[in-house]
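Dear H.,

Thanks for agreeing to be a second pair of eyes. The structure we're designing against is below in token form, covering all 223 positions.
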């Protein structure tokens, strides 16, 4: 509805932990969909709303550039990209969605010498969330080195790449399997409904509000 479209677009993770619950929520909010042949789009059949299926990391950017008006993404991804993006307009979190719950936590080797967050000073911490970690370290006035790893963060201490890690945790099983123990929480996260910061026309604004209200209704069990 930016760029002259006459239908709203909502970006959802194509395949991953948030995919099923996101589509389920949209259905409970009353949307009916039909998949495109290439499976990249779901066409809304009863409202002028389509779903774009993408990697979760692409969702904040799609909202910032206005290619999508709404998106469902983890708060961790949204906040990381907002902090990393500096002054650029950031997507607006409208609603917490009650699924995809996890925490970004600092974990250290079991039985090691790191006992409190103060002990992290001067050490290396591996993470895929460098902006969130750096922001937390600044707030705690701890000077530590942030080591960026794209994946398998939990094995970094064993490989000697870092003394500690900062990664997402839900059940804690991955940390336990890697002889790591949680030291502290950096961010509590869950899936959120986020909106583009770009100005929209009246029709799009109305549709965003209508959809937001339907989703809120579905969450409270009234939808
Ligand atoms: O392909 P795409 O880029 O879209 O997917 P992805 O692989 O980046 O994301 P995905 O599907 O793994 O996660 C999507 C979102 O789910 C995350 O951004 C979080 O908001 C949320 N979420 C909730 C989690 C977890 N729980 C979670 N446990 N994301 C990842 N994990 C990983 C964690 O990184 C660690 O490797 O699961 C492991 C720990 O789990 P436990 O249960 O052993 O503690
Ligand atoms: Zn991702």
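And this is the sequence the design step returned. I haven't edited it by hand at all.
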């Amino acid at each position: 509805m930016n760029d002259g479209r006459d239908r709203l677009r909502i970006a959802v993770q194509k395949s991953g932990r948030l995919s099923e619950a996101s589509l389920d929520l949209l259905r409970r909010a009353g949307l009916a969909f039909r998949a495109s042949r290439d499976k990249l789009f779901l066409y809304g059949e009863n409202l002028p709303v389509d779903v774009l299926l993408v990697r979760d990391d692409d969702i904040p950017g799609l909202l910032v550039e206005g290619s999508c008006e709404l998106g469902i993404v983890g708060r961790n991804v949204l906040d990381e990209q907002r902090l990393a993006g500096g002054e650029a307009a950031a997507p607006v979190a409208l609603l917490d969605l009650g699924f995809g719950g996890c925490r970004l936590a600092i974990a250290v080797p079991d039985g090691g010498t790191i006992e409190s967050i103060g002990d992290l000073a001067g050490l290396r911490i591996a993470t895929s969330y460098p902006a969130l970690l750096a922001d937390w370290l600044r707030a705690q006035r701890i000077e530590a080195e942030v080591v960026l790893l794209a994946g398998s963060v939990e094995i970094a201490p064993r490989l000697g790449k870092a003394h500690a890690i900062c990664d997402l945790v839900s059940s804690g099983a991955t940390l336990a399997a890697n002889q790591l123990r949680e030291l502290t929480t950096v961010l509590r996260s869950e899936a959120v409904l986020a909106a583009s910061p770009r100005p929209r026309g009246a029709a799009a604004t109305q549709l965003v509000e209508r959809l937001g209200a339907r989703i809120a209704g579905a969450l409270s069990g009234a939808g």
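Two observations from my side: The chain has seven helices and twelve strands. The first helix runs from residue 19 to 28.

Warmly,
E.
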